[in-house]
Amino acid sequence: MDQNHPQNRAERECLTLQAQIKDFHAAQALLSWDLETLMPPAGYQARAEVTATLAETAHTLLVGPKAQELASSLLASQDPVTKVFLRDHARALRLPASLVAKQARVAGLAHEAWLAARDNNSWALFAPHLEETLQLKREEAELLGYEGNRYDALLEGYEPGLTVAALQELFGALRVASLALIAEFGIEAASTKTSAPVSSLAQIDQVVQLALARKVLALLGLDQSNSRLDLSVHPFCSSIHQGDIRVTTRIQSADWRVCFYSVLHEAGHALYESGFAPDLYRTLAADGASYGMHESQALFWENCLGRSLPFCQYLSQALPALGDGFTLFRQTNTFAKSLIRTEADELTYNLHIILRFELELALLDGSLSVKDLPEAWNEGMQSALGLTPPDHLHGCLQDIHWAHGSFGYFPSYTLGRLYAASLWESIPDFSEGILGGDLTAVKAWLAEHIHRHGRTMLPAQLMGGLGLSLSAEPFLGQVREKLVTINS
Amino acid sequence: MDQNHPQNRAERECLTLQAQIKDFHAAQALLSWDLETLMPPAGYQARAEVTATLAETAHTLLVGPKAQELASSLLASQDPVTKVFLRDHARALRLPASLVAKQARVAGLAHEAWLAARDNNSWALFAPHLEETLQLKREEAELLGYEGNRYDALLEGYEPGLTVAALQELFGALRVASLALIAEFGIEAASTKTSAPVSSLAQIDQVVQLALARKVLALLGLDQSNSRLDLSVHPFCSSIHQGDIRVTTRIQSADWRVCFYSVLHEAGHALYESGFAPDLYRTLAADGASYGMHESQALFWENCLGRSLPFCQYLSQALPALGDGFTLFRQTNTFAKSLIRTEADELTYNLHIILRFELELALLDGSLSVKDLPEAWNEGMQSALGLTPPDHLHGCLQDIHWAHGSFGYFPSYTLGRLYAASLWESIPDFSEGILGGDLTAVKAWLAEHIHRHGRTMLPAQLMGGLGLSLSAEPFLGQVREKLVTINS
Asked: So what's the pLDDT on residue A7?
């Protein structure tokens, strides 16, 4: 290859630019991880300023004169990493810095108002902020451009390649089938009956809980040499940069499942982040193919593998105090209708998501007004699960996403669950290894087919490479099988 | 004030630029703190890249076109903060980015070679790196410019306003007086006799050690709301930004003094960092007046106040297991000749510094060659303390400073001790408060006279404001008094 050919020189310069941008992302990741885990509270205001300065600088690098010059000389590049750069550059260029800054300011105030609204069970306290947020999101969508639905422009930021039309069809079928399963297996509301009550076996000492969490992280190759496990209010995974992946968890009373499955979930994200091909590091391609695909990796480990019978049998051997494998399987697969998304089981969870997706769509196109949202929410919950929230905290004020302006994010959760089920169906049978606590083959398979590609392939391409397409069928089949087993 | 006057507009823009630069410094401080305390080892290489990118960006902001435009329109400004900016801008502008980058690379390799040289007791392994480092420091000094000695150009970066000529006079007198005190009080080598042997009273449980450390931090107003205390190999203080000051310490066996006095030392740095006037935050003036002045604040708390009889009496009341106040005073004020700078007592410590200063001076002007350094070191140690290092680890390879290219840094330690003694002499008598564990008056006095000014006043101006000048007399008088007391 001629290193001095203008095209090659531009590609090299583009890699240098991307490395700088990724270095900023790494610093931002650490600032944010630290804020969630360790920072003294008096540091908040100054930390916000530091974060804003770094974000602004990274944005300037992505859209500045050098980036524009490189983008125009690389317009026809077929290099997969360069194509990711061009995609991000083009999208960022459409959004003026003034709009981005205004959205950040509005989100800050909306976050505060959301907290106050929750404390006071008052939709009116939050409504004007949501109205302003929506107006800015509409503006953003118009600037970004779209072909079908305005929501498509926002969805592209989370799930590139997917459209509202496709999502409506998918979610419609999933909703019908989910309601049918709920009826068939007589799944009831959590308050009246849980399908597997928390037995005394679920009560495990905190120190043992953390030791168990560390053990499963070590099985996945995440140890103190390349990762950390810390505590935070909400569990999350933060990839600072290669060689430094940080998982957090929480200990909720003595119920070991909260800590354990949080860790397994975040470990799924961590494996994705640590599995990109080496030549993708310090490029914009070193990230998940989409929010849905990233979530799929977390849900694969948490739900598909982590709540499978072979893995429950392994867990039971590793820590006999948890009870026998089948009891464990029942304890970790419980189904009940409930009001809070983050506490829902894997079947009813998607109905929470579908409701939010439909409300977002209606809010964005103006067919639903902000003031009417609580009523629409409650009607939706009644129609989906036969439940009515006693207050907004258990209803339309439960999630932070809208306060942050993250319209288009919610579908990622269900998409992740569907992708995960498809992958679980097509992965070779590694049950024997799993029974013995050997997860290396599973990890290697995911690394080969998903992780190493980073963002160089779209979700549909990754799935297509495995002969799969986006579908609810594998998920529905697996949940039915679980329901049959636990009810046998 | 006319906000639109060009001068005022430029000053405002200059504050915005400084805020950006300081935000980068804050991010760098966190990256570095995290590396020393928490980072998984596999993260080193990527972390180095992130740090380099941020450092380069911050440097570019300080010397870039905008900074140059502001500097030329503000050249005659009398605003104290603007003057600090102009000083930093002018100094940074004289150093080409290529030299700075080369120095960073050479320092990286020199650091590695220094570690290998220590492991192999081989000066030859380190010598070529020191030679290259020196050549770059000479180049740097020439670019920076100086009037008297080439070393002045480097000293200015640590102790602005001080010259080699003044330092030689000061250190010469300090050396003579120190040797006289050593002779008068029969201070011997640590290996043959320690003036106060470590009694069983010095053995305190680790948990109690940390609780004691937290207690003294709380007395100083440093608690979990605005600061952290963590463990690291070498204790340090890192000020991320206002509201977030981080002190680290180490626990060395059961000798509580190591942990306690490390914390008190670093707390002194922390108080300085948290005491700048509010309008200095996010400006380049939010830092110590000099390295020596910063060190003075640490040594004031560690040695002047922390090893004073009233404070020992307070400690003894707070934790009776430590023994009575006078025993404690003897235990915390021990004097013995030794080979390692960081383990030296406060009297012989300065002889270690003076030796290094003289060697640096000779290396920089070429009158001492790198290959002859070990011999010169050993002769110096023999002449100052009558000791000869058994190997380079206990001799010329004990400090990391030269590997990092920090020529001109060593004098700061002794200057800090001298400043601290002068301040201790002129501070009102707060013994009664100290006896009761009330340190607020001491803290307030330092904040008023030193901290709040940040870098807007040079060390000589700060001292001058108190009617003081740089002198070894207060220090020598205080040490003599201690020697008399502990030998009584």
From this structure: 79
Contact A46 B242 (CB under 8 A): yes
Query: In terms of DSSP H, where are the helices of A74-163?
Result: 80-94, 97-120, 123-144, 150-158
Whole-complex ipTM? 0.91
A349-365 vs A123-144: helix crossing angle, rounded to 10: 70
Spacing of C-alpha A302 from chain mean position: 13
Largest CA distance in chain A: 72
Task: List A203's β-bridge partners, or say none.
Answer: A255
Can you read off the two tokens belonging to residue B181?
A: 């005190």
Helix (H) or strand (E) segment spanning residue A240: strand A237-241
Prediction pTM value? 0.92
Residue A454 zone, left/alpha/beta (φ > 0; ψ -120 to 50; rest): left
Give the chain B residue whose CA is nearest to the CA of A30: B31
**A344, A190 contact by CB (below 8 A):** no
Query: Do residues A395 and A382 make contact, with C-beta atoms less than 8 angstroms apart?
Result: no
In chain B, what are the helix, strand and coil shares in percent, each to the nearest 5? 65, 5, 30
Residues 6+ apart with CB under 8 A from B82: B11, B14, B74
**Which parts of chain A register pLDDT below 70?**
1-4, 191-203
Q: Does A39 touch chain B (CB under 8 A)?
A: yes
Residue A461 token pair: 């391409």
Q: What is the DSSP letter of A232?
A: -
Interface test with A, best of B31, B38, B229, B273 (most A CBs within 10 A): B38
User: How many C-beta neighbours within 10 Å does residue A227 have?
Assistant: 26
Nearest CA to A13 out of A72, A91, A88, A97 is that of: A72
Q: What is the pLDDT of residues B163-216, one digit of tens each?
A: 999 999 999 999 999 999 999 999 999 864 444 444 454 667 888 899 999 999
Strand pairing category for A237-241 and A244-249: antiparallel
Gap between the Cα atoms of A301 and B350, Å rounded: 60
Kindly report the average pLDDT of chain B as a whole number.
94
The full DSSP string for B422-474 is: HHHHHS---HHHHHTT--HHHHHHHHHHTGGGTTSS-HHHHHHHTT--S-SHH
Q: How far is CA B19 from CA A275, B24, B351, in A?
A: 37, 9, 41
Phi (first) and psi of residue B351, to 5 degrees = -70, -35
- How far apart CA A468 and CA A422 sit, in angstroms, is 7
* Residue A452 contacts B, CB cutoff 8 Å: no
Contact A53 B228 (CB under 8 A): no
Query: What three-state secondary structure class fits B202?
Result: helix
Residue with tokens 């998501």: A353
Residues forming beta bridges with residue B231, ordered by sequence position:
B249
The H or E element containing residue B69 is helix B65-73
A156, A266, A295, A360: which one is catalytic? A266
* Contact (CB, 8 A) for A288 and A455: yes
Among residues B428, B488, B439, B6, which one has the least CA distance to residue B216? B439
Amino acid at A249: T
Residue B125 CB contacts under 8 Å (≥ 6 apart), including other chains: B113, B116, B117
In B, minimum Cα distance to A222 occurs at B40
CA A146 to chain centre: 24
**Residue A273 is a catalytic residue:** no
Q: Which two tokens stand for residue B4?
A: 């639109």
Phi-psi label, residue A234: left if phi above 0, alpha if psi -120 to 50, beta otherwise: beta
The length of chain B is 488
Closest-CA residue of chain A to B28: A27
DSSP-assigned letter for residue B231: E
- Alpha carbons B44 and B48: distance in angstroms, whole number: 6
Torsion of CA B324, B326, B331, B334, to 10 degrees: 180
> Does B53 contact A244 at a Cβ distance shorter than 8 Å?
no
